[in-house]
Amino acid sequence: MSRLHTFTYLFILLLFLGAMPFALSAQEEQEPDGDFQERPEEKEPPAEGYPEEEQFLEAYDLGSQIFTIDAGFFIPLFFHFPAASDNEDVSTFEPAFGQLSLGGSGSLSWGSYLTPRFAIGVELAGSFSFTPNGYVNSLIPITMFTEYLFRYGSFEFPVSLQGGFVINRVQDQLYMGPIAIPGISGYYNLNAEWGLGLSLDYWWVPEIYFDKSENSSFGNFLELSFSARYHFS
Q: What pTM value is reported for the model?
């Protein structure tokens, strides 16, 4: 009889141990108020997968093009005469406003992007101002430029450097020489095609004479203009 009691107790203990995991699982699925919590349905991931992070799309790529129109003010700053010690009529630095008046300027340029931020192109510009005698002094640069673009939302800030040659004419005097024009611009894009803004360019115009080095000079001018830029592909 004792052996039968022993088997009975072991059987009851095994039933209790086997039922305990199911009781614990049911307790975990119950809410505090006694209701069972339904598990949310698991949705299959999209075929393309979940995006890791939002990617920023560049506005330009290889082959994107720009066409720019500028019109504004031409401001003479000063002339630098490096050999002024050999010429008693001039100082090393001469203010340009005593020799030229405030003038006007304009330009047309075309460029193409090699990367989303770097572009190259060509520009045809022109400026005019007046001498104290009323003669027109004109500068006509023909240049190539490189440009690096900084962007912030709808705003663009191109930084450029131009190099080429310039035609300098005053009455019947004509001079052709090199020119360098660093500049910076700021544009607000009205839409995907048009942007409006301001440009600030520094004209450095050497005028070198090998036979009369004392007359060589470096003109320094500032151009402040309103700009319209058209983007296309």
A: 0.73
